[in-house]
Design goal:
single chain; 236 residues; alpha+beta; 2 domains; five-stranded antiparallel beta sheet; two-stranded antiparallel ribbon; 2 helices; 17 strands; 25% helix; 30% strand; elongated
Length: 236
């Protein structure tokens, strides 16, 4: 019975993390270039249950069926599918219509990557993000606006997008430098919308809510069993 409480605690903890993740995805439906984050869970390895209540002296081991201690969050992955392109008509808006990420230098000097091409120009006629981060070229220099052709943005791709770590606001970091895309397909006057599916996230939210209710009922039943064991069994 005590083990049941522990298993329920783990289950509710998983549901809380799933709900937080779903809420974060829903909150970023309108965030340009945002990529949905998904969690996946696994089951703990089965262990053998036993006791030593066999034999005349209750000192012989008796093996029972296997038992699992519930599930756990095994990790997360980034949904790297591309969002739809939205025409804005602004000359400082860009969308990557291929694999890869824009390279930017954040205020603290850290290199980050994003598919959000909602840029503007600073006083030096250089492209910067809405947060003021410098947009970099393939050689690591700030990109200056040109009157002809597509600016020389440094578009970087990764062998495995799952190695990217979210920094928030559709920015990602990576321990590897990635690979420069030789001929990226960049659309000027467009932005890539978030790839979050509102309907899928709402279904996930409803499913999580129902699982919360099921765990609440299981907790109530376990509590009633413990109450009888503590308050009534000893009187027999």
């Amino acid at each position: 019975m005590i083990r049941g409480l522990d298993t329920l605690y783990q289950s509710v903890n998983i549901l809380e993390k799933r709900q937080e993740n779903t809420s974060a995805n829903i909150a970023n439906i309108e965030t340009t270039g945002y990529q949905a984050k998904e969690l996946f869970q696994s089951t703990y390895k089965e262990v053998q249950m036993h006791n030593y209540q066999g034999g005349e002296d209750n000192d012989q081991r008796i093996d029972y069926d296997g038992f699992t201690y519930g599930n756990y969050i095994a990790g997360s992955y980034l949904d790297s599918s591309k969002g739809a392109l939205e025409s804005t008509g602004r000359s400082t808006d860009f969308a990557i219509n291929s694999d890869g990420y824009f390279t930017v230098r954040m205020s603290n000097g850290q290199i980050a990557y994003t598919r959000n091409g909602n840029f503007e120009l600073n006083d030096q006629n250089q492209y910067v993000t809405q947060e003021g981060y410098q947009v970099l070229s393939a050689n690591g220099n700030p990109v200056t606006a040109t009157t002809t052709g597509t600016p020389d943005f440094g578009i970087v791709s990764f062998d495995d997008d799952q190695t990217l770590q979210s920094l928030g606001n559709a920015y990602y970091s990576s321990q590897s430098a990635g690979t420069q895309v030789a001929s990226p397909n960049i659309e000027q006057g467009y932005l890539e919308e978030s790839n979050v599916s509102a309907s899928d996230e709402m279904v996930s939210l409803i499913q999580t809510s129902r699982e919360f209710e099921a765990n609440q009922k299981a907790l109530s039943a376990t509590n009633q069993t413990l109450d009888k064991a503590v308050n009534y069994l000893g009187k027999i």
